[in-house]
Amino acid sequence: MRLEGLNSDIYVMDADGKNPVNLTRNPTGNFDPSWSPDETKIVFASNRDGNYEIYVMNADGSHIVRLTTHPAADSSPVWFGAPLAVSPKRKLATQWGKIKQKGSTND
Hints:
0% of the residues lie in helices and 28% in strands. By secondary structure, the chain is mostly beta strands.
């Protein structure tokens, strides 16, 4: 869910809600996080560049890379692969789908 003008960041924390860590640290909206099947990356949507685009980062919040670059708003990113995946420590079930992977020849 996105609300215009809302500052929203992506956090990870212990299962009991303690020790939250802000991964995105950005004054704009960051939404729709989804863990990679191998638990090393998180894909998400953000309007940090003025338009909603898809980004990926390491699970610790480092190395944020923009994946989409067109004027339409992009949101709700999902990973190519298994039909159902579960985030680390089984905190959240996520429905996975297909997105074009960078450098993929399978359109």
